[in-house]
Amino acid sequence: IGHSSTHDILGTIEIALNLVPGAKRVYVVSGVHEVDRGIEDQARRDLKKWETRLEFIYLNHMSFEDILATVSSVSPRSIILLLVLSQDVKGTRYTYPVVAQRVSQVSAAPIFGILDTALGHGIVGGNLINFERIGVKVGELVLDILRGTSAIKNIPEFLGVPPVPIFDWRQLRHWNLSEAALPKGGIV
Q: CA angle at residue 21 from 54 to 77, to 5 degrees?
């Protein structure tokens, strides 16, 4: 059984705009690895909807050090969108939590992400792929199979677990963002 994760980049930007309503620029942090580029390609397609209102500045052509320097000098009314940077242009590899933490240490604007592994490492949140929920769903399916309650024909070919709006309360406070602007059902 495969698992297909859908990155809700558009949903994350909409949440970010509710929390930072005066934002005019979005700095998109991503890398050059094949996976990084695929997610950025999706972002470019999804974010076309906002191109008349927002300026998107893609940082994938920079080294991680240059990305850090750039986000340290952005306007506080900007948004940092952390996609995936597993490898920068210099070929250096990174993990998502490390990238989130290093970006948050220097960022002059709030950071929104797409993976829950960056929570507690400096992102405000977003519509995040939640690996715990994926694990629970897989566990439930396995138990159903082992108990014989799931007929083979009813087992899905792909297990789809949608992203969840999740937020770090400390980052909401740090950036003075209103919890009232969070989506209904959001987890803080």
A: 75
